[in-house]
C-alpha cells in the first residue's frame, strides 16, 4: 500500500493536465484506475492528521512573525451527483453557477514562501438536510450546515490553537463582515478583508451610507482597524467601505509599518 500511495502522489504532482483515476493510472503504468481508486476508496486515511503534519512542516520551514494567513475558497468542477458536497453553486473557477464542490482553504504566506495549511469542505443545505445522502458519503451524522465564513473561522481558530505564527489575515468580500472580523479582533490579529459594495456601514456620525452613495463623489474615506482617515482622491471608489465597521478597538501587530505609502499615516 505504501508503494501505491507513492505512485498516487507522483501522479498528482505529475505533468498530466487532468488528474483523473485513468490519467493517474496511465502515468503509474497501471492497466486501469482500480489501484488508484483503492487508495482513496478503501484505504484508511486520517485526513486531519495529515493536515497537521503538513502544517507543522510548513511552519518549520516558512514561519515568520509577520506572515499572512490567506483565506479563500475554490471550486472543483464535477459532472456527477455523488461527490461529497457537490451541488449547483457559484464558483470563481468557472465564473458561473455550475455543478461543483467548494472548499475553503488557508494558505500560509511569508517572505520565505507560501503553502496551503488547512482546508474545509463546504456542504450546502441540500446535503446537511439529507441524512441518507450524508451517510452514503460517510459524513458524520453530527455534521451541521456551516457557511463559508463559518468554515473560515474554524480554520483560523485551528491555526491559533496550533500556535501558527502570523500577524495578518487576508480574505475577499465573502469573509469581510461578521464572525471572521470578530474572531480576528479578539485574537488581536491584523486583517485586510474585502466588503461588498452593498454593505451598509455607520460613519460614526450622521446617517448610514453605502459605497454606492459615495460613487457620486470621488472622495472616499479609508478605514483601518476602526479609525477613519480624512477623505482622499481615488479614481475608482467602487468597492471601498467608508466609516466604522465595528465599535470596539483592535490591537495592531507590533511589527506593523507606521506609514502606508498610498494613504498616509496608519492608525495606531
From TrEMBL:
Region annotation Disordered: where it falls in the sequence: 243-268
Keywords: Plasmid
Residues covered by the Transposase IS701-like DDE domain: 7-216
Signal peptide: none
InterPro entries listed in its UniProt record: IS701-like, IS701-like_DDE_dom, RNaseH-like_sf
Name of a matching Pfam family: DDE_5
Positions with biased composition (Polar residues): 244-257
NCBIfam families referenced in this protein's UniProt entry, alphabetically: transpos_IS701 (NF033540)
Record's protein name: Probabable transposase for insertion sequence element IS701
Species the sequence originates in: Sinorhizobium meliloti (strain SM11)
Amino acid at each position: 500500500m505504501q508503494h501505491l500511495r507513492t505512485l498516487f502522489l507522483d501522479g498528482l504532482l505529475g505533468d498530466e493536465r487532468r488528474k483523473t483515476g485513468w490519467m493517474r493510472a496511465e502515468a503509474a503504468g497501471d492497466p486501469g484506475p482500480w489501484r488508484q481508486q483503492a487508495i482513496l476508496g478503501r484505504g484508511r486515511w486520517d485526513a486531519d492528521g495529515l493536515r497537521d503534519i503538513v502544517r507543522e512542516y510548513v511552519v518549520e520551514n516558512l514561519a515568520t512573525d509577520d506572515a499572512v494567513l490567506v483565506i479563500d475558497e475554490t471550486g472543483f468542477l464535477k459532472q456527477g451527483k455523488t461527490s461529497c458536497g457537490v451541488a449547483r453553486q457559484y464558483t470563481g473557477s468557472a465564473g458561473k453557477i455550475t455543478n461543483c464542490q467548494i472548499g475553503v482553504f488557508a494558505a500560509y504566506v511569508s517572505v520565505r514562501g507560501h503553502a496551503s495549511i488547512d482546508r474545509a469542505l463546504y456542504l450546502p443545505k441540500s446535503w446537511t438536510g439529507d441524512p441518507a445522502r450524508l451517510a452514503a458519503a460517510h459524513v458524520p451524522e453530527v455534521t451541521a450546515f456551516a457557511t463559508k465564513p463559518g468554515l473560515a473561522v474554524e480554520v483560523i481558530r485551528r491555526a491559533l490553537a496550533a500556535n501558527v505564527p502570523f500577524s495578518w489575515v487576508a480574505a475577499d468580500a465573502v469573509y469581510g463582515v461578521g464572525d471572521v472580523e470578530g474572531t480576528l479582533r479578539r485574537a488581536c490579529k491584523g486583517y485586510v478583508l474585502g466588503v461588498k459594495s452593498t454593505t451598509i456601514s455607520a460613519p460614526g456620525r450622521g446617517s448610514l451610507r453605502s459605497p454606492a452613495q459615495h460613487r457620486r463623489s470621488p472622495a472616499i474615506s479609508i478605514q483601518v482597524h476602526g479609525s477613519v482617515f480624512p477623505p482622499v482622491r481615488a479614481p475608482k471608489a467602487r468597492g471601498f467601505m467608508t466609516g466604522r465597521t465595528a465599535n470596539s478597538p483592535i490591537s495592531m501587530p507590533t511589527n506593523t509599518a507606521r506609514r502606508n505609502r498610498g494613504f498616509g499615516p496608519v492608525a495606531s
